[in-house]
Amino acid sequence: MTEIAANPLDNSFQWPEGGVTRVPYRLYSDPDIYALEHERIFRGPVWNFLCLEIDIANEGDFKTTFVGEIPVIVTRDANGDVHAMVNRCAHKGSLVCLQERGNREHLTCVYHSWTYDLDGQLNGVAFRNGIRGKGGMPKDFDPKKHRLEPLRVQVYCGMVFGTFSDETVPVPEFLGEDMDRHVRRNLGRPLKLLGFHSQVMKHNWKLYAENVRDSYHATLLHTFYTTFKVNRLDMDGGIRLSDDGWHSISYAKRATLDESEEYANAKVHSAQYDSQLEGPEMLDAWPEFEDGITHSIQAVFPSLAIQLTLNSLAVRHFVPRGIDRTELFWMYLGYEGDTEEQTRMRTNQGNLTGAGGLVSLEDGCINEFVERGTRGSAADAAEFLEMGGLDVAPSEGSRATETSIRGFWQGYRNIMGFA
Amino acid sequence: MAVGMAGIVEIDDALLRVHIEDMFSDYVHSIDDDRIEAWPEYFTETGFYQIISREGFEAGHAIGVLHCDGRGMMKDRVKAMREANIFEPHCYCHVMERPRLHRNSADTYSARTNFIVNRTMQNGDMETYACGKYLDLIDVSGDTPRFRRRIVVLDSRRIDILLVYPL
């Protein structure tokens, strides 16, 4: 770990004074930092979301995915065991799986027909012994030394996680007790996929990691919720953090809604919308949990978020597509035991989020505005993040805080060696 | 519908097809020209509208990118777009093929129409934003043809930035 603590960009990058309340814009545009993130974060001691377990429900199923920009294959073998490996042939580096999903007995690279078992072991090399005694691999060629690069996997709450590091502690420990409990609350039952799509956003991936933790902006930018009194800062709610601060939950309880004077007086955009829906059935909902939490967004470092807003359950996975591109995958879920009526309500509420989400669609462009706004900025230019204090601490009763964003940066600084 | 000689029915049918095709054009023009308030009027009161990827549609998923069950939800979308949602100004240009129509009954036609939508941003950026097909069920029992159901099946499951105007 001492090795990780050293700042590898020592001479060229120093975090400014002010700790996690100052975030240099350079983090969104520096190619050296982006490359280092792959080494220290995506290949580091974290669990990366790979896919849903229902994506590879049957023996022989595979699903391709990404860890950072690294292409990855997830498989379920004939014994039912789940494996993950880099989607890169051990021979010339070509993609092995071209399809996003499918079912196979083996994985075969199309280029020279190198064939791998579903656990990534090399099982056959075309013309290994040459043709008519000529050519072929050297005598000492050992297939065991040429497998697809493996990731360790853990299946947890219907999700498959992968890590490149031997150091990564099991998923529940990685999350911490409080975070683990909340994931189990939302996903700890057999899941059913209701739909999916993705959205490509033109900014660095960390801007979405911030955005999904930004409880301060939620009711100011996303005025649909505010106006329909679905989710407001003046509801009883708060922020919970993991011990290291890099995972967080923003939650609200609707039952305690009351009008606060700040909203009535402030000339914020959120007050402009009429409060009558002509299709009110979109918000038909039922109380699913006894803890009274009606809305929660849980962010898991580095690139996962789980939402349960009203009854709309979704897993969001954001994948860097280059330093200034991010693809956000929306997977909408229900539970196996849902009634038809419950599915209908989850489906209607699906309109609230996603690329065309009445509540969330602004997030598709807002981080791009930051990306564009910070171009050409001075070397020491930085975000100012002092809302709700200077520290990284849970916030009960208020979401007018940037504490979970500071928590993200605290974790980021530690793992990157920038602390 | 006219009754009597088979030939007369065919002529009526041809006229109705023209009405349907005109309605299709009016629909996309009202979106392209930012007269979005007119959009719900192209549907019956209980009409259904959905945007979904080809992959999701073929898998029979309930959730795509968005859907509206009835005109009320469409009007909410329009109002949200005008008053609540934040996005960079842009406009669409729809280009459609000629609809392939099938008469289902005296009251309904079904149709498939391929389309491409170009999106132009305020700074001049232009690109193909969406490509796919309209799968429609059209009610011809009223004064004007209206959609009972319009499913917009997108070839791509990936939306560029965001989707706020209907397609």
Features:
heterodimer; A: alpha+beta; Rieske Iron-sulfur Protein; Naphthalene 1,2-dioxygenase Alpha Subunit, Chain A, domain 1; seven-stranded antiparallel β-sheet; B: about 170 residues; alpha+beta; Nuclear Transport Factor 2, Chain: A; seven-stranded mixed β-sheet; 3 helices
Describe this protein's structure.
- The complex is a heterodimer of chains A (419) and B (167).
- Chain A is of the alpha+beta class and 419 residues long.
- Chain A is built from eleven helices and 20 strands.
- In chain A, the strands form four sheets. Chain A has an eight-stranded antiparallel beta sheet with strand order 12-18-17-16-15-14-13-20, sandwiched between helices. Chain A has a seven-stranded antiparallel beta sheet with strand order 2-11-10-5-4-3-6, with no helix packed on it.
- In chain A, a hairpin with a 3-residue loop joins strand 15 and strand 16 (304-309).
- Chain A is globular and about 80 Å long.
- The two termini of chain A are 13 Å apart.
- Chain B starts with 5 loop residues before the first helix and ends in a 7-residue tail after the last strand.
- The A-B interface holds A 193-202, 221, 223-224, 227, 269, 272-274, 277-282, 327, 332, 343, 346-348, 350-351, 354-358, 361-362, 364-366, 368 and B 51-53, 56, 61-77, 79-80, 83-88, 157-164.
Give a short overview:
The complex is a heterodimer of chains A (419) and B (167). Chain A is α+β, with helices and mostly antiparallel strands and 419 residues long.
Tally of discrete structural domains of chain A: 2
What is the assigned CATH homologous superfamily of the largest domain in chain A? Naphthalene 1,2-dioxygenase Alpha Subunit, Chain A, domain 1
Helix content of chain A: 10-25%
CATH fold call of the largest domain in chain A: Naphthalene 1,2-dioxygenase Alpha Subunit, Chain A, domain 1
Strand content of chain A: 25-35%
- Rg measurement of chain B, Å: 17 Å
